[in-house]
Design a protein that fits this description.
The chain is α+β, with helices and mostly antiparallel strands. Helix content is 30%, strand content 28%. It has helices at residues 2-25, 80-83, 187-213, 225-247, and strands at residues 28-30, 33-39, 42-45, 55-59, 62-66, 87-90, 96-100, 105-107, 115-121, 128-137, 145-152, 164-172, 178-179. A hairpin with a 7-residue loop joins strand 8 (105-107) and strand 9 (115-121). The termini are far apart.
Length: 260
């Protein structure tokens, strides 16, 4: 009985520690990944190539503005408070409510349930609000879209820990998980690949021609064997000639290649 009890407690503590560890370490924001986070060499970033759009949606008379990666600036309908925020609501009477500051936090235990969270207190009615942006991966040629889903919460029991929650759904290519281990081949790598492939073909074709067509044997099957045999001495003479020419500028007789 005691062993069974200890086993159950151990399993319980294991899952608790696993949950805490996952929540503490999942989706870490970095400078290299703007407006997103990284976990186990994978990332999500809504600011691909610095072109994160300002998203809009309407729900009846209410209009919503969302800029997930930078402040809402340059929009005529918004006031100064909304222009410095990440999310804003404009109701049917034209009143503006700040739905979230530009401070971004993350919720979720995996990329499948990752949420971008923005919170703020609106100066219009002093209520606390939180915008929750859920993500849905879409094909690259689909225009990114924002859809307002629902509002939950109670205005009569509104506090910073129990705010009004506005849920949004972002659909776009930027919501897809990207693998950081896959990188494009650099120009230098391409040149190296071409060089070694060319060298391989040069040796194989040259050896076949010398062996089968010319009947060469031994080291003479190597393409241009005489040239490669003389290359070290030619290189040495070239260096010697270059150095000697630089040291003997006034002596024309010592500058000739035949004097080396």
């Amino acid at each position: 009985m005691g062993l069974v009890c200890c086993f159950r407690i151990s399993v319980f503590l294991y899952f608790i520690s696993l949950t805490l560890f996952t929540r503490a370490n999942f989706c870490v924001p970095t400078k290299e990944v703007p407006c997103g986070c990284v976990f186990e060499n994978k990332m999500i970033s809504l600011d691909i190539d610095g072109l994160a759009p300002v998203l809009k949606d309407k729900d009846g008379k209410d209009e919503y503005f969302f800029s997930p990666c930078r402040p809402l600036k340059g929009i005529k309908e918004l006031d100064n408070e909304c222009e410095s925020s990440a999310a804003c609501q404009k109701d049917g009477e034209g009143k503006l409510y700040k739905l979230g500051s530009t401070t971004l936090t993350f919720e979720g235990t995996s990329f499948s349930d990752l949420q971008f969270v923005y919170g703020a207190q609106s100066s219009t009615d002093k209520l606390y609000r939180k915008s929750v942006l859920k993500l849905e991966c879409a094909v690259p040629d689909l225009v990114p879209a924002l859809n307002f889903v629902e509002q939950t919460g109670n205005t009569s029991a509104n506090t910073e820990s129990t705010p009004l929650v506005y849920e949004f759904l972002y659909t776009g290519d930027a919501a897809c998980v990207r693998d950081l281990t896959t990188k494009k081949i650099s120009g230098g790598s391409v040149l190296l690949i071409i060089f070694f492939v060319g060298l391989f073909l040069y040796l194989v074709i040259g050896i076949l021609v010398n062996k089968c067509v010319r009947g060469a044997v031994g080291l003479e099957v190597i393409p241009n064997y005489a040239f490669w045999q003389d290359l070290p001495s030619l290189t040495k003479e070239g260096f010697a000639f270059t150095i000697k020419c630089g040291c003997c500028k006034g002596d024309e007789t010592a500058r000739g290649y035949d004097n080396i």
